[in-house]
């Protein structure tokens, strides 16, 4: 099973001292967090994509390319690639280039984002969000698998005898996840193509994501990609840990109470009861995370959001030490012991997919 970190790249004031990091500091912090993730034995680092303040990762492939040069094992991914407002041709070429530079350690997550104004900034209409996601991904899927593409659709100019360059490494496109908070159409899309489905699993109750993942699993089997329990599922989550749970709650509370995304609303206690946010000891995080299997079945990737709400870099790196040393080793062992033999243990890697493609070509 893959464990890792995803970052939305928010620039948020630290409520304990009133200081807001510069954009440069936040970008460098994301890089430091990725390097730390590999150091402590995690498998994945994923960056969000935003084009508005207070976020900095407007060009994830640039950041991931830089991280690729400084790591050896880490899988580099996006937590959202905006399939609705990015040109599919540019996505095809950017991620194929990154794939070559990173020796295949690349996948990506398609999403529509959560910022409405981004649509007109890139010449699109938010009311076309779902049709854009469907059409653009259909084109991207072809661009990675066909050397020459003739195409005409509703939302971009036609293509005639077009070849995207570079071609995918070893002729194998990056593995794709489809992320959604609320749209069954995206779960259906992921199932249709046999791709992965990722539920960010942060702000909503478990029952909400159970419906989406359940639909994805059913439709994955319907389209003949395997049994429902073999579908490729990823989950997000949020944790904050200290040796003693009381210390964790006391330290995290001011960040929670003032965070732009959930501050000034439900209390920390209410939020942790109703969502997967876990604030406590490492053992509490282990116990809570193991319940995810009960709710969603066996799954292949678990990513945690840890660098948010103004938490200083030093604190985030301490969190990663705890995660890598005390939490993930136990989770790996426990999840593996429970997983049936026919269920994939991890998300598809480039090496495995390239080997399969070579075998099928013989």
Structure write-up:
This protein has 362 residues and is α/β, with parallel strands linked by helices. The chain has 12 helices and 13 strands. A 9-stranded parallel β-sheet has the order 3-2-1-13-10-9-8-5-4, with helices on one face. Strands 6-7 form a two-stranded antiparallel ribbon. It has a two-stranded parallel sheet with strand order 11-12. β6 and β7 form a beta hairpin. The longest helix has 26 residues. The two termini are 30 Å apart. The model has no long low-confidence stretch (mean pLDDT 95).
Summarize the SSE layout with pairings.
Blueprint: E1 2-7, H1 23-39, E2 44-47, H2 60-69, E3 75-78, E4 81-82, H3 88-101, E5 107-111, H4 118-121, H5 129-145, E6 149-151, E7 159-162, E8 175-179, H6 184-193, E9 196-199, H7 206-222, E10 233-235, E11 239-241, H8 245-258, H9 268-274, E12 278-280, H10 282-296, E13 301-304, H11 313-338, H12 350-361
Parallel strand pairs: 1-2, 1-13, 2-3, 4-5, 5-8, 8-9, 9-10, 10-13, 11-12
Antiparallel strand pairs: 6-7
Helix pairs in contact: 1-11, 2-3, 3-5, 6-7, 10-11
Summed over residues and divided by their number, the pLDDT gives a mean of: 95
Question: Radius of gyration over alpha carbons?
Answer: 20 Å
What's the main sheet like? Answer: 9 strands, parallel
**Uncertain stretches of 5 or more adjacent residues:** none
Task: Write the element-wise H/E pattern from the N-terminal end onward.
Answer: EHEHEEHEHHEEEHEHEEHHEHEHH
**First-last Cα distance:** 30 Å
Classify the beta-strand content into a percent band.
5-15%
Structural class: alpha/beta
Shape: globular
Helix content: 40-55%
Determine the number of helices (DSSP H or I, runs of at least 4 residues): 12
β-strand number = 13
- Order of adjacent strands in the largest pleated sheet: 3-2-1-13-10-9-8-5-4
């Amino acid at each position: 099973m893959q464990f890792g970190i995803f970052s939305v790249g928010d620039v948020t004031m630290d409520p304990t001292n009133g200081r807001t990091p510069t954009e440069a500091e936040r970008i460098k912090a994301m890089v430091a967090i990725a390097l730390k993730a590999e150091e402590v034995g995690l498998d994945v680092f994923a960056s969000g994509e935003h084009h508005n303040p207070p976020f900095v990762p407007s060009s994830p492939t640039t950041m991931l390319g830089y991280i690729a040069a400084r790591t050896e094992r880490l899988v580099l991914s996006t937590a959202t690639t905006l399939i609705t407002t990015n040109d599919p041709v540019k996505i095809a070429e950017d991620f194929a280039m990154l794939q070559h530079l990173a020796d295949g350690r690349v996948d990506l997550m398609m999403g529509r984002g959560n910022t409405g104004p981004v649509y007109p900034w890139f010449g699109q209409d938010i009311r076309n969000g779902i049709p854009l996601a469907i059409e653009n991904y259909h084109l991207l899927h072809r661009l990675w698998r066909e050397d020459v593409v003739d195409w005409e659709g509703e939302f971009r100019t036609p293509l005639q005898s077009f070849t995207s360059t570079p071609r995918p490494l070893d002729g194998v496109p990056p593995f794709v996840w489809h992320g959604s908070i609320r749209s069954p159409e995206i779960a259906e899309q992921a199932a249709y193509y046999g791709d992965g489905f990722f539920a960010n699993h942060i702000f909503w109750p478990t029952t909400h994501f159970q419906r989406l993942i359940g639909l994805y699993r059913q439709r994955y089997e319907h389209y003949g990609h395997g049994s429902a329990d073999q579908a490729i599922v990823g989950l997000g989550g949020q944790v904050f840990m200290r040796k003693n749970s009381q210390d964790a709650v006391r330290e995290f509370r001011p960040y929670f109470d003032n965070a732009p995304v959930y501050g000034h609303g439900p209390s920390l206690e209410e939020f942790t009861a109703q969502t997967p946010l876990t604030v406590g000891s490492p053992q509490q995080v282990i116990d809570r995370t193991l319940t995810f299997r009960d709710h969603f079945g066996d799954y292949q990737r678990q990513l945690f959001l840890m660098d948010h709400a103004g938490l200083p870099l030093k604190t985030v790196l301490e969190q990663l030490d705890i995660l890598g040393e005390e939490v993930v080793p136990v989770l790996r062992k426990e999840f593996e012991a429970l997983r049936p033999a026919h269920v994939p243990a991890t998300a598809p890697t480039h090496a495995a997919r390239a080997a399969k493609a070579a075998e099928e070509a013989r």
